[in-house]
Amino acid sequence: MQKEKKAKDNFYAKVYALVRKIPEGKVSTYGAIAEKIGTKLSARMVGYALSQCVGTDVPAHRVVNRFGALTGKHHFGPPDLMKRLLQDEGITFNADETVKMERHFYDFKRQRRRR
DNA sequence: CGATTGACGTTAA
DNA sequence: TTTAACGCCAATC
């Protein structure tokens, strides 16, 4: 029985699941993930959850803020690691270490649309 | 249990 | 235009 464990427990699981399914060469935003999870009012939690995901199967480096800025690069250890990982996956940057969202933004709602 | 923080986002001044 | 504060939700201290 045990009814479904509170959805709250799924919060992290949801974040991880979504981020984990981000294809390489693509990036997503906290707001988009938060919205997909259902707590779009708390994009902060998404980032917070991701901070715990470093060291797991979740490619947190593919998650950036709305501006495409690598807000959490400092959580990866080396400050340039995040940018390096993204570039290594084929992601391009603008001038200020910001991901070209127009090119690499992964829309969870639009994932059906094949390129 | 209470207060603070946190990889954001949005609106106001 | 730029800067500041608020709001949200959950986790951590």
What descriptive keywords fit this protein?
globular, 2 strands, Arc Repressor Mutant, subunit A, 5 helices, mainly alpha, disordered N terminus, two-stranded parallel sheet, DNA-binding, 115 residues
Q: Count the helices. How many?
A: 5
User: Which CATH class?
Assistant: Mainly Alpha
Strand order of the largest sheet: 1-2
Helical content stands at 25-40%
**Main β-sheet, in a few words?**
2 strands, parallel
The CATH topology: Arc Repressor Mutant, subunit A
The beta-strand count equals 2
Mean pLDDT: 83
Oligomerization status of the protein chains: single chain
Q: For the CA atoms, what is the radius of gyration? A: 14 Å
CATH H-tier superfamily: Winged helix-like DNA-binding domain superfamily/Winged helix DNA-binding domain
* Intertermini distance: 42 Å
Which blocks of ≥5 consecutive residues have pLDDT under 50? 1-8
Structural domains: how many:
1
Indicate the proportion of strand residues: under 5%
Shape: globular
